[in-house]
Amino acid sequence: MFALALGARLVARDVAITADEDNWMRRAGGFTYGLLNGQLGRTYQNGHPGVTTMWVAMLTLGPERMVQYADRVHNQRLVGRVAGFWEALVDARLGFALATAALVAVIAALSWRLFGPAVGLAAGVLVGLEPFYLAISQLVHMDALLSGCMIASVLAALVARTPDGGRRWLVFSGVLAGLALLSKSPALFLVPFVPAVLVAGTLKHRAGNLASRSRVWPPQNIRTRTGDLLVWLLALVVTFVALWPSVWVLGPTEVLGRVAQFTRETGGQPHEAGTFFWGEPRGDPGPLYYPVAVLFRLAPATLLGLLLLGVFWRRMPPERRPAILTLLGYTLGFLVMMTFGAKKFDRYLLPIFPALGVLAALGLAAGLERIASGAGVVRTVSPPWEGGAPRAHLAVVGGVLVAVLVALWPAASSYPYFLSYYSPLLGGGASAQRTIMVGNGEGLDQVARWLNERPNAENLWVVSHSFDILQPLIVSSGEPLRDRVPSRADYVVLYRFGMQIGHSPRVLAEYLDRPEPELSVRIGGIEYARVYRGPHLAAQATLANR
Question: The pTM is what?
Answer without folding.
Answer: 0.91
